[in-house]
Amino acid sequence: MNEQDSPTTGGEVTPTGEFGSGAVRLDQGHVVGDGGIPERFENPGFGPHIHRGTDLDEVAAKRAERIVGGLFLLSIVGTLAFVVAYFAIDKHSTVFIPGIGQTNALHTALGLSMAATLLGIGLGAVQWAKTLMPDEEEVEMRHPMRSADEDRSKFVEILGDGAESAHLTRRPLIKYTLGGALGLFAVPVVLPLIGGLGPLPEDDLSVSFWNGHKEEDGSYPNKPMRLMRDPQNTPIKASDVTIGSVFHVMPEGLLDLEHHILEEKAKAAVLLMRLDPDDIKSQKEKDWGHQGIVAYSKICTHVGCPVGLYEQQTHHLLCPCHQSTFDVTQDCKVIFGPAKRPLPQLPITVDDEGYLISKGPFKEAVGPSFWERGSA
Amino acid sequence: MSTETLPTGRPADQLRDGDKPAHAAPSAAARKAGGFAGWIDDRTSAAKPVNYLLRKVFPDHWSFMLGEIAMYSLIICLLTGALLTLWFIPSAGHTIYDGSYVPLRGQMMSEAYASTLNISFDVKGGLIIRQIHHWAALMFIVGLTVHMFRVFFTGAFRKPRELNWVLGTILALLAIVEGFAGYSLPDDLLSGTGIRAMEGFVQTAPVIGSYLAYAIFGGPFPGEMIIPRLYSAHVLLIPAILVGLFIAHITLVAVHKHTQFPGPGKTNDNVVGYRVMPVYAAKAGGFFFIVFGVIALISALFTINPIWAYGPYDPSPVTAGSQPDWYMGFADGALRLLPGWLEFSFLGFTLSLNIALGALVLLPLVYTVLGVYPFVERWITGDEREHHLLDRPRNNPTRTGIGMAAIVAYSVFMFAAGNDIIAIKLGMSINDITWAFRIGLFVLPPIAFWVTKRICLSLQRHDRELALHSRESGRIIRGADGSFHERHDALTDRERWILVQHEPVAPLQLTPEYDENGVARPAARKDRLRAKLSHWFFKDAVNPVTPAELAAAHHDGHHAEALEASDHDAIEQGADTDSTGLSSGSPVRD
């Protein structure tokens, strides 16, 4: 078996030795080498068949038969149990199962009896196959996937003849117009699909409920709005916000909406926190807040999950989806995780009655990044 | 194909005669069944192809059941899914819940969520159907993934099965998209958060992101279009493609005839196993019921996706521990590992590679790499032949190493999606864990490759050792001259065959850059790369023992396989010098 000895045709990348030469015939693949020793071992062929207990012993076969029958019987019993459970067990009754706990009795009974029905059939059939059905392996020959050469050339011939007899080659007008028509025929299907999927975003992603209603000329009032507790929908007095507390806030009027409430919530949700003003390291954060009360968008700048977890001691906000961590003392800049941008801050102040109000809308788009967010 | 494999030149009627057993008179029941079959055959001439399928031989191995698990789980999903459509309302329209689950009564929610609660609490047996549907979906993807591992590590994707590997890859990708669409439908807080993240992913597509998001959601997120659209994809579009490709997949399996593991009597030209009728009809048919039964058992005992515990979707609250189903974990994990500095702003435009790489690039990339692997390997090895005998994974150490490295990389991504859970369970810092995963992503796959390859090579050397010197019996024999030697039990030819059946391999040889006339060959560059890769693929190859090597070992180790310890090394050296296939040159030792 010398790879070096095997002839290689010059100029080609040729696999060495046996490799790559013709079909594999492991059983006949040896070549007689030096000293009459074959290059490869020869496939020794099948070993003697070892009979099973059930082939030799009628008692064992009988036992196997009884096991198969018993399993099929289990299936029938399972089905009956399923029917009984379906009608007899109240759908709200519960049952205690050790290791699993309190669970719905009907659900468990239906599932277990169904499992018995199915496993009875399945295990019975497999047991039957393994003990009583023939277990002598049989041999089927394979054939190369490649079709006979004449069939392959016939195929090329048929295609060529077809194109020729249809005048496809001789009449280019037909060829090119057909090509054009087939290339374009999807347009009537695809155009309504693309056109009808949804509206264009326009400036929608860059504004929120805090901007107010869009005017006819496309501008926004950007008027101050009260900060409302969610879900109580009540205004918040600055004095109610104690140090360390956190409020879930929506703009005034949002929770009264009849339509599109979720769409507005998805952009307008705000977290309101009060810190010791001395802890706040950013002057802009102090200026946009009110005596240490600061309001930040709750929508993560990564992919838009709500930033749900506020660590009171460290003043960190953590998004539970991908663990971006924002530091509230540093204008909510990202201190860990996959997000890049800080959470947008909502400028706030208090009105005459002492309730917290926004000084204006968010100054940038909230939520996940998008290509044109900076240009809005 | 089917007609080719039957003997040709026989008239059809004669063939049909042969199908009927001449010796036994058919019973009344058989005559009745035969009569019905005859009625069908009169109208379809189905007898011949059906006979062919019933007589088909399938080889037996436990790992061939993995694909079956996937196939049956898919069927179970189709069955239970059809039932669920009877009760599920695919609408984001608002409704006030008045069903029997008290904690949510009176709450505003979508009809999708309310109807899922209805299935879970008010439709008798609805919960078990829903649970089976979800568990079967998970089982489907587990099954197809492990099936894919089996096909990869045994080289079953080689010619002529490359196309079927590509089909399988597409099926695997569609399966996870189908799964995502499915678990998003109930519109509970967890799945809604998943859709929210998906919207964020889409939004980061360069240039067209926001337009794409508005097209998919029919306007601003969440809107009322996404649930019906996901529903249409989940129950019609994707299942239709899945089932179509699956039928093509299984048809190709029948056309190619199943691969088999090497063994005595098994060659590249035959299939050794049992016929469909009766053995595989019972085994495979029974196995469907076993898979179904096990899923029913799991569904009865272990709750999956308790949507009632999450509440209806609202974009402002969130639950800690938000994880997708396991098969989406790798993409979610990638998002947790990608650092924020991959977001860039220039000229007022924002490019969020920290999201796009994990959410938009990774998924197609993984499946493209998978899909092209057979073609790359074929190019590297230059092997153009048909392969129907499977490789033992140890006999292709480089491929096995690549596979393990890929699995490790995938696992790092997948476990990274649970970094918060790991942090809580182990009481560790989530930051440290995330960093460990980030480093692990680059460090662990090469280690996995190296370790796996070394293990494979060791196993191959062990096989050689065993084939050459048989098994040590542990019986020490004292010779007449007072020497001691250990008796080695001889291997039978059939035992040895498993160890020596595989083909010797060697790297492709580098072709000259200039032809005989001294003209530079244009393909030389490509060939150089190819030869280099081929060298990398095969350089450490441990080739099987040849008869000559065995004869040398026997010759030196006379006394009927009883080898003296002092003789042993000499035999090894003799074997090594004889073997040109042993390129590693490292002596084989006890």
TrEMBL record, chain A:
<dbReference type="GO" id="GO:0051537">
    <property type="term" value="F:2 iron, 2 sulfur cluster binding"/>
</dbReference>
<dbReference type="Pfam" id="PF19297">
    <property type="entry name" value="QcrA_N"/>
</dbReference>
<comment type="similarity">
    <text>Belongs to the Rieske iron-sulfur protein family.</text>
</comment>
<feature type="region of interest" description="Disordered">
    <location>
        <begin position="1"/>
        <end position="23"/>
    </location>
</feature>
<dbReference type="InterPro" id="IPR017941">
    <property type="entry name" value="Rieske_2Fe-2S"/>
</dbReference>
<feature type="transmembrane region" description="Helical">
    <location>
        <begin position="109"/>
        <end position="129"/>
    </location>
</feature>
<keyword id="KW-1133">Transmembrane helix</keyword>
<dbReference type="GO" id="GO:0046872">
    <property type="term" value="F:metal ion binding"/>
</dbReference>
<dbReference type="GO" id="GO:0004497">
    <property type="term" value="F:monooxygenase activity"/>
</dbReference>
<keyword id="KW-0479">Metal-binding</keyword>
<keyword id="KW-0408">Iron</keyword>
<feature type="compositionally biased region" description="Low complexity">
    <location>
        <begin position="7"/>
        <end position="18"/>
    </location>
</feature>
<dbReference type="InterPro" id="IPR045603">
    <property type="entry name" value="QcrA_N"/>
</dbReference>
<keyword id="KW-0411">Iron-sulfur</keyword>
<feature type="domain" description="Rieske">
    <location>
        <begin position="288"/>
        <end position="357"/>
    </location>
</feature>
<feature type="transmembrane region" description="Helical">
    <location>
        <begin position="67"/>
        <end position="89"/>
    </location>
</feature>
<protein>
    <recommendedName>
        <fullName>Cytochrome bc1 complex Rieske iron-sulfur subunit</fullName>
    </recommendedName>
</protein>
<keyword id="KW-0812">Transmembrane</keyword>
<dbReference type="InterPro" id="IPR014349">
    <property type="entry name" value="Rieske_Fe-S_prot"/>
</dbReference>
<keyword id="KW-0560">Oxidoreductase</keyword>
<dbReference type="InterPro" id="IPR036922">
    <property type="entry name" value="Rieske_2Fe-2S_sf"/>
</dbReference>
<keyword id="KW-1003">Cell membrane</keyword>
TrEMBL record, chain B:
<dbReference type="InterPro" id="IPR016174">
    <property type="entry name" value="Di-haem_cyt_TM"/>
</dbReference>
<feature type="transmembrane region" description="Helical">
    <location>
        <begin position="132"/>
        <end position="153"/>
    </location>
</feature>
<keyword id="KW-0813">Transport</keyword>
<keyword id="KW-0249">Electron transport</keyword>
<keyword id="KW-1278">Translocase</keyword>
<feature type="transmembrane region" description="Helical">
    <location>
        <begin position="165"/>
        <end position="185"/>
    </location>
</feature>
<feature type="domain" description="Cytochrome b/b6 N-terminal region profile">
    <location>
        <begin position="36"/>
        <end position="262"/>
    </location>
</feature>
<dbReference type="InterPro" id="IPR005797">
    <property type="entry name" value="Cyt_b/b6_N"/>
</dbReference>
<feature type="compositionally biased region" description="Basic and acidic residues">
    <location>
        <begin position="13"/>
        <end position="22"/>
    </location>
</feature>
<dbReference type="GO" id="GO:0022904">
    <property type="term" value="P:respiratory electron transport chain"/>
</dbReference>
<keyword id="KW-0472">Membrane</keyword>
<dbReference type="GO" id="GO:0046872">
    <property type="term" value="F:metal ion binding"/>
</dbReference>
<feature type="transmembrane region" description="Helical">
    <location>
        <begin position="69"/>
        <end position="89"/>
    </location>
</feature>
<feature type="transmembrane region" description="Helical">
    <location>
        <begin position="346"/>
        <end position="370"/>
    </location>
</feature>
<keyword id="KW-0479">Metal-binding</keyword>
<dbReference type="Pfam" id="PF13631">
    <property type="entry name" value="Cytochrom_B_N_2"/>
</dbReference>
<keyword id="KW-0349">Heme</keyword>
<feature type="region of interest" description="Disordered">
    <location>
        <begin position="1"/>
        <end position="24"/>
    </location>
</feature>
<dbReference type="GO" id="GO:0008121">
    <property type="term" value="F:quinol-cytochrome-c reductase activity"/>
</dbReference>
<dbReference type="InterPro" id="IPR027387">
    <property type="entry name" value="Cytb/b6-like_sf"/>
</dbReference>
<keyword id="KW-0812">Transmembrane</keyword>
<feature type="transmembrane region" description="Helical">
    <location>
        <begin position="435"/>
        <end position="452"/>
    </location>
</feature>
